[in-house]
Amino acid sequence: MVTTRMTMRLPADHQVEEVVAKGTEDDKSRQVDAFDAGKPPPFRIGDVRAAVPEHCWRKSPWRSLWYVARDVAVVVALGAAAAAADSWAVWPLYWAAQGTMFWALFTLGHDCGHGSFSDSRTLNSVVGHLLHSFILIPYHGWRISHRIHHQNHAHVDRDESWLPLTEGQYRQLKPRAKKIRFTAPFPALLLFPLYLFYRGPGKPGSHFLPSSELFSPKEKGDVMLSTTCWCIMLASLLAMACAFGPLQVLKMYGLPYLVFVMWLDLVTYLHHHGHQERLPWYRSEEWSYLRGGLTTVDRDYGWINNIHHDIGTHVIHHLFPQIPHYHLVEATKAAKPVLGRYYREPHKSGPLPLHLLGVFLRSIRVNHFVSDHGDVVYYQTDHEQNHHKQK
């Protein structure tokens, strides 16, 4: 009888063990699901740096110049082919391809600005001016403002590009301004030239004027040099318009330039917005360089990854902008075990990153403003704005 009773209790004991085990798994699952990206990470930036292989920090000026030569050759070949064909069946393909190559030139000039192109300041400045002036960007003016962006990434008040509006700023916008920024995709993707001239809301100044509060007194000479180079490029375009006609310059340069601007605005926006996980923004003592950098997002651009020099591999770039672009993928793989869930694996793209257009459109519909108060804040949605759009 005793043996029988013990045998009969075994299934019940086994069930209890299963329930306890399941409860433990559920607790672990809840702990994982409760991950808060706004909390300080359990590692230091030195831990991430130590995980990156030593050779990833080495810069090769010859390798960098090879990428410049390659991209310039493609730009020249595309221009020559389009001019020779001079067909409206070819022009739209040319605009898309050449605009993408202008974007590739921008990323190389961007590396010059960070000093990841080479260890030579002179070489970085010469190449950066040539590349950025060609696409109508004042090299030093943009370099300095972009440095401010990296030094203050994800800080509500001090960040420089695509920083969020506070609720107070948002409520003061006129309906037309809200529509342009948050509902219509193409105006939102053509804001970069305006940013160069006027910066963003609440941040007066210009990338062209040495007197702008963007720049310190010792930087004014650099800004004047870059603005002069920009003016020379603009004068060259006007001269070509007089020689070959405005329409030809528009087809050869103007429309590819617009495609380039759309690439720049789309990519830079998605580096800091649009993830399904809410991304924190910081104020005051809650902000740190590491926590701000960890809010950035990697993106996969399919075939475009190699064309635009892996600029979508952005988390490691934001933490360590000195790493050359050709080492970013390897450095990211090495750092991922340290970053853990603070690294957001990018969605795998097809040959062309068409899925990112949907990500962008959704983000501008829901990421409207952050609270005026609080040191760790997240984007909020103005549902009334979306309701008006649907009407």
What topology does this entry show?
Elements: H1 2-33, H2 45-51, H3 61-85, H4 91-114, H5 121-134, H6 139-151, H7 167-172, H8 175-182, H9 185-188, H10 192-198, H11 220-244, H12 246-270, E1 281-282, H13 289-293, H14 304-307, H15 315-319, H16 328-339, H17 355-366, E2 376-377, H18 383-390
Antiparallel strand pairs: 1-2
- Our count of helices gives 18
State Rg: 25 Å
Number of strands: 2
Low-confidence stretches: 1-12, 23-32
> What is the global morphology?
globular
State the share of residues found in helices, binned by percent.
55-70%
Distance between the termini: 78 Å
Sheet-strand content, in percent, reads under 5%
How are the strands of the largest sheet arranged? 1-2
Number of domains: 1
Order of helices and strands, N to C?
A: HHHHHHHHHHHHEHHHHHEH
Domain Fatty acid desaturase N-terminal: 17-80
Pathway: Lipid metabolism
Subcellular location: Membrane
Pfam families: DUF3474 (PF11960), FA_desaturase (PF00487)
